[in-house]
Amino acid sequence: MISLNVKKGYRLKITGEPPKELVELPKPSHVALLPEKIPFIKPRLKVRVGDHVETGSEIFEDKRNTRLKFLSPGSGQITEINFGPRRVIKEVVIKLDNKESYVPFEHINKDGLQNIDRNDLVKMLSKGGLWPLLRALPYQDIAPTDKVPPQIIVSLGSSEPFQVSPEIYLDGNTDLFAFGISVLEKLSNNNVIIAANAEDKSRLPDQSGRITHIIKGDYPADNPGVILYKTKTSAAQNNSWFINTQDVLLIAGLLKEGAYPTGRIVAVGGELAPHPGYVKTRIGAPVSHITQNENNKIKSRCVAGGIMTGYSIDKKSFLGFYETSVLILPEGGKRELFGFIQPGFNKQSYSRTFLSSINRSHLNMNCNMNGEERACVACGSCAEVCPVDIIPSLTFKCTLADEIEESLSHGLLDCVECGLCTYVCPSKIEICTILQNAKRSYYKEMSG
Ligand code: SF4
Ligand code: SF4
Questions:
Q1: CA distance linking residue 179 with residue 252, whole number of Å
Q2: Phi (first) and psi of residue 13, to 5 degrees
Q3: Model pLDDT for residues 165-207, shown as the tens digit of each residue
Q4: Which end of the chain is less packed: N or C, by CB atoms within 10 Å?
Q5: Which residue, among 77, 75, 82, has the nearest Cα to 51 in the 3D structure?
Q6: Which of 137-151, 339-353, 370-384 has the lowest mean pLDDT?
Q7: CATH number for the domain formed by residue range(s) 2-10+106-257
Q8: Which residues pair with residue 5 across a beta bridge?
Q9: For atom 4 of ligand 1, which residue has the closest CA?
């Protein structure tokens, strides 16, 4: 087992952490697929409003690669297809019925997996709608169906606050996890990295003894991109694939049972979450169902996908295909009486100008920016925390000046889009978004 020590990063201590208890929610009345939240695809609808679908029926495919199929996480009727600006397909809403009917898929057991041809395995995963769970670095796009990856990285858990702990979803599922890892081994010619955070290791079930790397360090030390950056030995590995551990279980479930798996464990946290904890629900469940009647008295914001990497979501919307966490945070913005003379003992800040730098307890966090974007003051904080040794201030300036070659030489493609540079920047510059957009434009340019 290899031990990796990631020195750069930052540990956020925020109140509202979900207790490690799993609650199974009743079946929601509706579910939805959100094509606009799946980057790099061009969706083509395969259903119309009024159509009846089964669990596993095809809802849309990617026009550019029709092997990428996105399936219904429940049986029922298509009740809405909502479009955003410029006719982008935003949501396909399915009203669930009482009977649960499934599209049957091929299934295999452990022995079958040993003997199956790799191409047939790829076909099973594409037809079964779960191939898009495999993603490729450095762009985090869906893994190409026609290539063999140099390796697949599976990071158990995430050091980002309020994510589902591995001991929750691995509990009782260690055999299924082992089967899922065997699938990944088949896809990658036995090149799978299984990494666990040193703090999680002792709490994991025995079967997860296939761990190959132990990661020490603050957020985002256990991000697959950071693991790649710290371990790669050749340029070919830059295109390694990765998959979330919960998704390994979904893939294993599909192949073992021959039915599209719909379960999702979601972490619900944040200061205003009425019932913080872990909930077992369905892919594409409504946000209001997951948060269980959020407290509306205080102005709040729902964030899907993580406090550093997530996005603001409408409370009437649904959970995206990849998302496993929902946070509810106060909007903030209330003026403090004599705030300018307060020492900031309870203020979240990376900067040591507040007394909170000596406060070891978890602190409240809200969405207030506390000021407008300003010019970069060259403080160096972004470089201090960047886990992949980029100097974000230089890279984003090159990007804004359209000097793409220059920003590539500063490590643009190593950026793992962790959001830490944006969080620590005292000038409120959306560095991560600028770099993410630059990576996406470059991707489009490269793929024609
Ligand atoms: S540049 Fe920013 S977003 Fe990218 S890896 Fe570094 S800290 Fe994270
Ligand atoms: S943290 Fe912000 S202000 Fe400081 S160097 Fe980086 S970009 Fe500039």
A1: 6
A2: -115, 105
A3: 888 988 899 999 999 999 999 999 999 999 998 887 777 765 5
A4: C
A5: 77
A6: 339-353
A7: 3.40.50
A8: 216
A9: 415
Closest CA to 175 of 260, 105, 259, 110: 110
Q: Is the pLDDT of residue 220 over 90?
A: yes
Nearest CA among 92, 75, 95 for reference residue 83? 92
- Is the pLDDT at 358 greater than 60? The verdict is no
322, two tokens: 């990849």
Per-residue tokens: 306: 């993580």
Query: How far is Cα of residue 397 from the mean position of the Cα atoms in its chain?
Result: 27
Q: Indicate whether 219 pLDDT > 60.
A: yes
What ligand has the least distance to the C-alpha of 427? 2
Residue from 395, 410, 421, 431 to probe ligand 1 pocket by mutation (most atoms less than 8 Å from CB):
421
Q: What's the 37 CA to ligand 2 centre distance in angstroms?
A: 29
Place of tokens 């490269």: 446
Of 89, 105, 90, 103, residue with least CA distance to 52: 103
Q: DSSP assignment of 53-119, as one string?
A: E-BT-EEEEESS-TT-EEE-SS-EEEEEEEE-GGG-EEEEEEEE-SS--B-------HHHHHHS-HH
d(C-alpha 268, C-alpha 258), whole Å: 30
Q: Where in the chain is the domain with CATH 3.40.50?
A: 2-10+106-257
Q: How far apart are CA 209 and CA 251, in angstroms?
A: 20
